Q: What sequence folds into this?
């Protein structure tokens, strides 16, 4: 029974649940709790899938009398499960190495090419390591890192943004850098890369990218109010791309962010608490009710 | 560490300004005018810049000369392309950098300006927009 339950759970958590969650509007009200819920979903789906495979494989030990067909099948499933686990591990390492290499290279170039601003007193926000690139396209981004994080803005952004808008942008970037939002995105990137493209889901990565932006928007809103953040967002999003630049890809995150800023900020404590509880339950309930009894049986059989 | 970073920038400015491959001595002479700087320090810095692939060494008889791999404008443009690419929906998307906001399509831009009117209404002071 264990493999069937875990297998069904894995299918549920990897398919319909993310689709429904991505469509829902309520996670945008509690972005931090929603990110935790997404992480719990991903963890539970991976654990259920691995658990399903391994518990079926463990029949080789638990059932003394198996036909040759069953032995072959269970062995195959065990091998496949190990392959999936290996791919997850490998994707995590690959994404981590690639991300850090690109980021280091980018930081080196930014340090060489950009104007360095003093850490204090840019639009009233003190941000360590602000770099200003001599580029007319208004843009702002951050390079996160344990040490050596950078917040980069272009001269065009300094020119086009009013002081309180700039303060909002810098506070937004600082929130990313401080809370290491990039690690959330990195984990979901790795999860996505671990699976072949025909079973890949876009939603978990996209939704979490949107949610970290909303979290950072909230930090900026608390500092300068919603209107300057929204104006900065529109100014930077609608600025003309440089000559020979890239066609913009509709990413669908812009309107939800601006519309969300138009709504009054409220903590939504109950929704937040329920979301956190759900996240905890998604991971713990299957572990305690299904995985643990199987592991105990397995331990007994081995003893 | 921070001082060495500043020195790297100064050395790089010299390399870019020269236009032709420069020797360590030329860079040292230009920079030592207004500061106390050892020749070997300049050599170390150029070596580091070569390791970072922003300058390359070219052989000139018995000595080495250094030249920038690209002009400063070109390197800024390359950096910008990476920033704008990184926000796109490319297959090679990484979390290397987190951008404030991506580029809107024309349709999105129109919708965004409309959404912004929700804020403009309740603004107490109507200041002129700079363009």
A:
């Amino acid at each position: 029974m264990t493999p069937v339950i875990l297998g069904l759970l894995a299918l549920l958590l990897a398919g319909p649940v993310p689709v429904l969650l991505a469509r829902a509007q309520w996670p945008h009200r509690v972005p931090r709790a929603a990110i935790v819920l997404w992480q719990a979903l991903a963890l539970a789906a991976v654990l259920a899938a691995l658990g399903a495979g391994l518990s079926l494989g463990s029949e080789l030990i638990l059932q003394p009398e198996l036909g040759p067909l069953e032995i072959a099948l269970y062995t195959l499933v065990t091998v496949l499960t190990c392959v999936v686990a290996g791919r997850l591990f490998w994707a995590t390492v690959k994404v981590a190495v690639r991300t850090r290499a690109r980021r280091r290279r980018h930081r080196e170039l930014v340090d060489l090419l950009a104007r360095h601003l003093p850490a204090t007193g840019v639009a009233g926000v003190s941000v360590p390591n602000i770099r200003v690139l001599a580029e007319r396209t208004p843009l702002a981004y951050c390079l996160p890192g344990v040490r050596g994080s950078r917040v980069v803005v272009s001269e065009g952004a300094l020119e086009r943004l009013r002081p309180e808008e700039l303060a909002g942008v810098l506070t937004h970037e600082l929130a990313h850098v401080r809370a290491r939002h990039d690690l959330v995105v990195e984990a979901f990137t790795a999860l996505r890369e671990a699976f072949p493209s025909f079973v890949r889901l876009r939603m978990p990565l996209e939704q979490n990218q949107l949610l970290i932006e909303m979290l950072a928007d909230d930090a900026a809103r608390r500092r300068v109010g919603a209107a300057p953040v929204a104006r900065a967002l529109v100014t930077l999003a609608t600025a003309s791309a440089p000559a020979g630049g890239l066609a913009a890809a509709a990413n669908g995150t812009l309107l939800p962010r601006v519309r969300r800023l138009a709504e009054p900020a409220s903590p939504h404590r109950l929704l937040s608490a329920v979301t956190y509880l759900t996240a905890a339950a998604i991971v713990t309930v299957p572990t305690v009710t299904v995985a643990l009894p199987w592991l105990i049986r397995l331990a007994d059989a081995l003893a | 560490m921070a001082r060495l970073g500043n020195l790297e920038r100064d050395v790089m400015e010299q390399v870019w300004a020269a236009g032709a491959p420069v020797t360590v001595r030329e860079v040292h002479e230009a920079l030592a005018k207004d500061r106390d700087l050892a020749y070997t320090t300049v050599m170390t810095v150029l070596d580091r810049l070569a390791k970072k692939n922003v300058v390359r060494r070219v052989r000139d008889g018995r000595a080495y000369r250094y030249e920038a791999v690209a002009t400063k404008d070109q390197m800024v443009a390359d950096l910008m392309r990476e920033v704008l690419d990184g926000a796109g929906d490319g297959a090679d998307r990484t979390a290397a950098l987190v951008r404030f906001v991506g580029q809107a399509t024309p349709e999105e831009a129109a919708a965004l300006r409309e959404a912004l009117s929700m804020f403009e209404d309740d603004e107490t002071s109507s200041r002129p927009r700079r363009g």
User: Anything to note?
Assistant: Chain A has a mean pLDDT of 89.
